[in-house]
Amino acid sequence: MAPARKQRGGSTKSAQFPPKDANIAQKRPGSVAFPIELQQLILDVFRRAFPFDDQSEVQKHIQEVKGHLFQRDFISAFAKQAYLDAYALRWSASRALGYSDILLHHDLQQIWLAKTVDSTSATRVACIGGGGGAEVAACAAAARSYSLSFKLEVHAIDIADWSSCLTKLEHAICTPSQLSPYASESAKATNKPLVPNDQFAVRFSQRDILAVEEGELRDILGGVRLCTIMFTLNELFTTSISRTTAFLLALTDTMQLGSWLLVVDSPGSYSEVKLGQGMEAKTRKYPMQWLLDHTLQQVAQSKWKKHVSDDSRWFRLDSSLKYPMELENMRYQIHLYQRVEEGVF
Ligand SMILES: C[S@@+](CC[C@H](N)C(=O)[O-])C[C@H]1O[C@@H](n2cnc3c(N)ncnc32)[C@H](O)[C@@H]1O
User: Fold this and answer.
1) E strand intervals along 115-163
2) Is residue 345 one of the residues assigned to a domain?
3) Is 92 touching ligand 1 by the criterion CB < 6 Å?
4) What is the helix (H) or strand (E) element at residue 275, kind and residue range?
5) Helix (H) or strand (E) holding 284
6) What's 124's domain CATH number?
7) Closest ligand 1 atom, CA of 92?
8) Nearest atom of ligand 1 to the alpha carbon of 208
9) Which of 104, 288, 300, 302 is within CB 3.0–4.6 Å of 252 for a Cys-Cys bond?
10) Where is the segment annotated Disordered (predicted)?
11) Does ligand 1 have an atom closer than 6 angstroms to the CB of 158?
């Protein structure tokens, strides 16, 4: 066991380290393990949460969602329940593996190792644009891997109504898979949920995060240990650079000292902004990373310490994984910040 780490504010680790599945895992250089067995359990959770009888019907929905996403018509892409289920089954499952890999990476261990101030209350994670469930499943994987001694509550905030998907996903996470009546006694004895429901809870709020009032933002972000914005920030900047900047500044004012902000997005994402009026108007492209850094480190006057920043990383799938549909490798940019006292590094 590694020695207890001192955290900001003097707290010590409260999670098992290395994670309990580490002994059966392939080790990645510089990282804790993300065992194939755990990856398969996560995929099984998605398969159980979103069962289907008719492969051609699901594929039809997936193609329709893909068409809407290609047109950047997010309202249509997430307009009906069948589309949301198809999206979660097709895209959130691969993303959940990529996000679990991120959360188990050594860069992020310190987020999970800090002890809770009050062991009776849950540790909270807020996932902006997290309705699709990938972040929720990845947090469950982290809770399992680190054997957290506190309850983890994951709050997904999303403009689309993902409530039904998340209820199904939470149920699949917290319930053991159904075994055949002929299953062996040892299979029955080891058939456990990914995470038991007394250690994991999911909450959902359907909100446009750019329109949330200050008081509600405090309810969403006040006291969270981690806020994630996964493959959503560039979409927010594209909607409105000024409103997204205002949101990031409000987030800065709301998040407690020592808490973390994790931003993951496509590499090379940029947003366009129109400068000037009429014939004089010009469009200018700003890289998402520049907008984020500019807001958090200059406009927010150094209230964030940047721990990780990488323009391009890959999560590649193992060919032994079994899933009823195509999965995708994930290439992403990643930025991890910690809320600090102004000017303290
Ligand atoms: C590209 S998807 C990414 C989903 C998920 N985070 C993932 O990585 O798999 C973007 C998500 O952000 C949500 N979203 C877009 N604009 C939003 C807004 N203004 N407020 C809250 N959620 C928003 C969408 O509904 C969608 O679920």
Assistant:
1) 123-128, 152-158
2) no
3) yes
4) strand 270-275
5) strand 282-287
6) 3.40.50.150
7) 9
8) 20
9) 300
10) 1-25
11) yes
> For the segment 133-147, what is each residue's pLDDT rounded down to a tens digit?
999 999 999 999 988
Q: What share of the chain is helix, strand, coil (3-state, %, to 5)?
A: 45, 20, 40
For residue 292, give the DSSP letter: H
Cβ(210) to ligand 1 under 6 A? yes
**Atom 27, ligand 1: residue with shortest CA distance:** 129
Report residues of the chain scoring pLDDT below 50: 1-26, 30
Is any atom of ligand 1 closer than 6 Å to the C-beta of 209? yes
In SS3 terms, 16-37 reads as CCCCCCHHHCCCCCCCCCCCHH
Ligand 1 in reach of 232 Cβ (< 6 A): yes
User: How many structural domains comprise the chain?
Assistant: 1
Residue-level pLDDT at 26: 46
State the residue range of the domain holding 55.
12-339
Please tell me the number of Cα atoms within 13 Å of 228 on its side-chain side. Answer: 27
- Residue 241: is it exposed, middle or buried by C-beta count within 10 angstroms (0-12/13-18/19+)? middle
Asked if residue 120 belongs to a domain, the reply is: yes
Q: What are the backbone dihedrals phi and psi of residue 35, each rounded to the nearest 5 degrees, phi first? A: -65, 145
- Could you tell me the distance, in angstroms and rounded to a whole number, from the CA of residue 157 to the centre of ligand 1? 9
Q: Residues with Cβ < 8 Å from 60, sequence gap 6 or more?
A: none
Nearest to 103 by CA among 262, 306, 267, 314: 262
> What is the per-residue DSSP string for 211-241?
G--HHHHHHHHTT-SEEEEES-HHHHHHH-H
CB 78 near ligand 1, within 6 Å: yes
Tell me whether residue 344 is in a domain. Answer: no
From ligand 1's centre to the CA of 209, what distance in Å? 10
- Assigned domain for 133 exists: yes
134 Cβ below 6 A of ligand 1: yes
By most ligand atoms within 8 Å of CB, the mutation choice from 154, 235, 237, 271 for ligand 1 is 235
What residues pair up with 127 in beta bridges, in sequence order?
A: 156, 228
